[in-house]
Amino acid sequence: MIPARYASTRFPAKLMQLLGKKTVIRHTYDNTVKTGLFDKVIVVTDSPVIFEEIKSNGGDVMMSVKSHESGSDRIAEAVENLDTDIVVNVQGDEPFVQKAPLEKLLDVFRHDHHVQVASLMQVIKNKKNVQDPNFVKVVVDLQMNALFFSRSLIPYPRDPSVPIHYYEHIGVYAFKKQALLNFTRWPVTTLEAAEKIECLRYLEHGIPLKMVLTEYMGIEIDTPEDLKLAIQKLG
Length: 235
What we know:
- This protein is of the alpha/beta class.
- The protein has a single domain, classed as Spore Coat Polysaccharide Biosynthesis Protein SpsA, Chain A (Alpha-Beta Complex), CATH 3.90.550.10.
- The chain is built from 9 helices and 11 strands.
- Strands 6, 7, 8, 9, 10 and 11 form a 6-stranded mixed beta sheet that branches. A 3-stranded parallel beta sheet has the order 1-4-5, with helices on both faces. The protein has a two-stranded antiparallel sheet with strand order 2-3.
- The longest helix has 13 residues, at 99-111.
- 34% of the residues are buried.
């Protein structure tokens, strides 16, 4: 499922921006389909413009019936009546989706039937990004379950002699269908509201989030500067 919202605070209509010969949302959709990992790939949108963009190019797309605060809420509405076990949420602004990270994410459910929710993370290599609140950081336990997500610096290097890896949370999730539906029935939690990080709702309800370490998925299009980088990457 690819949630695709037209409005964006930092970059309005970003999903309809041209990246080479195709829009950002079409790159995301086409590359997700190209992985060959999924029985079905569907864009879920609140926008007639995005709906028509996917439909007119032969893609599978649904309109949201209700208004939603998060991508998880949007796709939960779409899958509620679908016969499926595992749902993967690929953000619409991730045009360089790759097979390997998504395959690792799905493997978690094959190897551990207790996992309800899983997500991706990567090592932050640029030190200035560690301090940047636009980069959501995650810390994990020894079993790779998330302990906390924050826009702040976590963990804090009180002892600079201790080597620390800082991890960026990549907003790609896989859920068991029931866990996703449960999420949408809970009200927004305090930490989630404070940090503006929706997956904290799971942690506040005691649901573990299994984290999967991966290489960089590509470039997330959040700003016009990101789009310029993406155009350069596309060549």
